[in-house]
Amino acid sequence: MTKKKKVLLQSLFLLFLIIGTIIIVKQQRNTPYQHNTGFIFGTIYNVTYQYDHDINGEILQELNKVDASLSTFNKTSIISQINSGKSPTVDDMFADVFTLAADISKETDGAFDITVAPLVNMWGFGFKHNTMPNSHSVDSIKHFIGYDKVALQGRKVVKKDQRVTLDCSAIAKGYGSDVIARLLKSKGIDNFMIEIGGEIVTKGLSEKRLPWKIGVTKPSDDSLNTNQEIQTVLNVTDKAMATSGNYRNFYYKGGKKYAHTIDPHSGYPVQHSLLSATVLANNCATADAYATAFMVMGIEKAKIILDKHPELMAYFIYADKNGKNAVWYSKSMKGKILE
Description:
The protein is of the alpha+beta class. It is about 35% helix and about 25% strand. Helix 4 runs parallel beside helix 8 and helix 7 runs antiparallel to helix 8 (about 285-295).
């Protein structure tokens, strides 16, 4: 083959490659974005994705599988059966979440704990009580609180105390977002944003052909959730994001503010300066669980965990010594902050 002919063939190949790329990009730009919303796990889901047709039916089918496994709102779910004293064979979803929850509980020295619900309920956030718990009632419930009091043996959950109950609400929404992300990826969908009760997974670009931008709400004493002022905006493309915060989930009694985050060790609501913990991770279940754990631990203990896990990014809003909002974030988060 002559040098001239070789150059000509290379030029033709390059031309076809350019034309092919243009066609693919044009087709992708012309593919519409679908927008689905609905109700699951006692909250709202929103899914935006670029695809040639609506697949909300398949999305809901996957979410219903998670619901049937992990939702305490579903009285026939696997977790509800376990809590009622039955011993069902757990499915893959339950096993995945239980195993991840146990691992994060160990990493955080029990700050994250899926057995803490009875304490949460007693303090008035699951079922309202007219009187504040006393030390005797707290101590009596603490006897059956602790991630080490329950284990997964094969496909069965084994309890050291039959009074132990499970609640995966601080990890299940994130896991549900991960499940939908896997569904979309399996269909070759490269651009999407999934949000379930504030727990988010993104990939690719938004409808505006820009990275996905998610706002972090500024803390305020607004229990009715009417104030939506944004503290900062994060670029969360190809990441999962979860936020946990005390600033809206609280009540006053006797002039004292009680947060919704309960410390599984003490049995009492946490009393520290951290108002909001936003975590970015490679999957949403992990981000969800660590955001909750950090709200229990407070900033200083959370920093120790972050040093051990560089794959996690965190953005904390806390009250300084003057009671004003201040911000701390991990070094790896710096490139994600847009404003």
